[in-house]
Structure formats: structure tokens, C-alpha cells
Design goal:
four-stranded mixed beta sheet, globular, two-stranded antiparallel sheet, alpha+beta
Amino acid sequence: MTQNQQFEENKLEIEKQLTAKNIQFIFSSFSLTSFGISIYYKINDKKVRFSDHSVSNINRLMDEVHLSLPYKYFVNGTKSFNSNII
């Protein structure tokens, strides 16, 4: 599965879980890098980052809410799923 496909699969699942919990959101942006995938939303006037990797920048740690992606992909082609990311 390509990184682009992983992004799409995660974005759909995040929005499904947010909608199921009646959480209003606005999709902001995404990032596909050698570090991994990050998907950004605005929720209750806060920048929320769903990602498969950590952040070390102190400003980003203070200015963003950081959550894990619902899917984690492994080198052997398998994946795990978290149905409660929120």
C-alpha cells in the first residue's frame, strides 16, 4: 500500500470516528514525508494532528493536540487498527 493510499484510508477513518461522536471538524492539511504521515484538522479552534510519528519541536508540542492515526502499517504488509482514536 502506498503512503498516499495509507493517508486516504486514515483520513476516511478519522472523519468517520469524528462524525460518529458528533465532533465538528475542518480538514486543514496533510503531510507525507520520510518520517511518516500527518493529517491536520481544526476542532474547537484547536489544531489537531493525527500522525504515525512523534514531534520534538517544543512550539508544535505546545500549539497542537497530538493523536495517533487509526491504522499502523508494518513492513510485512500487515496493519493494526485502533477504533478509538478520539
